Amino acid sequence: MYWTFSLLIVFVIYINYRTGYNAIQILWSVVFVLCIFVKVVMHELGRALAAKNYRIQTRDITLELIRTPAGKNKFYFADQPSRY
User: Fold this and answer.
1) 78: exposed, middle or buried (C-beta count within 10 Å: 0-12, 13-18, 19+)?
2) Digit-coded pLDDT (tens) for 44-53
């Protein structure tokens, strides 16, 4: 998980506070953001399991809020680790 995720939580709290929401409403907003985060984690784990089904090794899963680490990770076939 990347450090900018904590900035998102702080931003949600700040915006809700400035809007005039009470503590319960702010808490529900934070819970909503956390639920979306859990959904994204489950999605990425599903992709890793699908890759495993096709014998593609996934070394890591990087969750970043601001940018996508495209090209950062490569797929490695289990039967040909020196292919890439």
Assistant:
1) exposed
2) 899 889 988 9
